[in-house]
Design a protein that fits this description.
heterodimer, A: mainly alpha, two-stranded antiparallel ribbon, 16 helices, 1% strand, disordered N terminus, B: mainly alpha, 12 helices, disordered C terminus
Amino acid sequence: MPTPKSNHSLRKPPSHCAPGRPAPTGAALIALLLLLASLLLLTGPSFLNGYWLRVLSNIFMYAVLAQGINLMAGYTGYPAFGNVVFFGLGGYVTAVLMVKLNASFGVAAVAATLLCPLLVLLVGPPLLRLKGHYFAIATLGLNEAVKEVVSNATSVTGGGMGISLPLPPGDAAANAAWFYYLFLGVMLLSTWITWEFGRRRLGIACRAIRDNETKSEASGLYTTRYKTTAWMISAAMTGAVGSINAYRMTYIDPSAVFDMAIAVKGFVIFLLGGAGTVLGPIVGAFFVESLQTLTWSKLLNWHLGAMGLIIMLVIVLFPNGFRDDLRLRSHGAPPISN
Amino acid sequence: MRRRGASTVPGGNRNQSGVFRPSPRATHALSVLTLQVILSGVLLGGLYACMAIGFSVVWGVTNIINLAHGSMIIIGAYITWMLWTRFGIDPFLLVPVASAALFVLGYLLYRVLLHRVAVASLFMTLILTFGLDRVLVNINLEVFSADVRAITLPYADRVLELGEIRLPYIRIAVFCMALLLTFMLHLFMNHTRVGQGIRATAQNARAANVLGIDTRRVYAITFGIGAAMAGAAGSLIAMVYSFTPVTGDSLTMKAFVIVVLGGLGSMHGAIIAGIVLGVAENIVSGLISPGYRDAVSFFLLLAILVVRPRGVFGSRYLADAKI
């Protein structure tokens, strides 16, 4: 996990780092806290029971989903509202490969992670010509279109009845720990990718596109290629957790894995943690998922409404997210304020 | 107008059916089926247009994509269904009641909640209205349960027969009512003070404000009008379709497609796009497979956005600059 202290090499040379920003007084403290948190997370399965392992796995999963949205909406400025399509597609690729072709989970997961960027390669260039609302809607339409195809291709995918995956070997406790580490690993990997993305040429180009696409194009950036690449990385992350999630659930159906609510929750997490920051999605995921876990168990009939209320409260109460409160370093101008 | 257009075609068919050979008869049957499917699609399309126009006006004027629009339609349907089962009032008389109730709901929602994100970004409005949609769906589930509801009117089985084509009178009435409502909204926007204020705000909110228009009130009224149109459309849908609290999701998506196809804020664009969608859906579900009915709108949406990103008919007078 990257620590904030080496962060200032992003936009300016280190010699005159962030003049307008308050000095990082608690940098050592924050580093210590991060170290402690990492230790706790790494040793989690030794002292947590299955329920809490599952809750934490969900938090990691949503952090990755939010990180995928962050790459597109936070860094590149394209609100990929229907990014859940890769979550569902990753799950279905894994399920179909494991059930129909008897592939092992590792092979199926890698295939799912690689196939989602392929879909972007196909639909990305035309869809990325759209902007704002229209892009958001088009991704929504993409999700619904893929969902309809999966629902109707009954002979391959099981259709609306869903598909059951092979059970993971081993007992429940060991599996919970295994999935915990898997999700934790993917989360750390996705955070590292976002970090590297932000400081490399690709990320800098994407931020330029976010801030002014016409000027970027005029200064010689081939914008479509950068935008498509960013979306491919985002899709790979999302597809990977979709694949792991399907294996963990052992049963998926189209309405569950292509659910827009998953994407919107990813968006809420992304907004709350702070758009365009590296650690924001993790902070947001911890906050939103814990809040939802606390309310969910108490409200059986109202969990849908409770989720809606949480979403609305978050938007109304924290319109700028935690970025300013936590002084999370962001890459460039915030895309959400007006 | 529609009757005449429809009745000329059976006349043409009669010549065909006069030939007593099996293979022309088969083609005749197919052409009657096709015509039936297309005409039902046109009738459905009028309803779709009415459903989408409120969504379109809200988007065009306030720049809010109201993902709760479908749920508002379903609330209108439930209000109609409830008053019809309790008191036996004819649903056509309940259209104004449902739209008035939804106007109040929409106005209050804007005043209390949505004005907070009115100037915020696209993410905020999409997510806030998604949250609102979940809450409304949950309220509908708790109040009206998840059972499938429908209104069966005593005159539902009366059918207009044009040659071999059969069109239920109730669908024709719903179609006419939907067009009437859309036309009334058109008149309201063009020939009343409030409507002119709404259009002025859509074109340039700051200038409208300088000229003494209370833009925040205009936004609230616009959102109320969008909700009222949803309520009216809900009443009409309840008469011809069965519905559940979660039916709203696909209706929102259809409203999207129609607005994108017809152009933001365009009334006649919405009617044409509604009819195109209705016919396309009916053709696919009638002649290919009913399973792909809902898929039509999504594929149509993707196709339109890729080919003509600004819609087929372009935007007319509302909020072109805001896109």
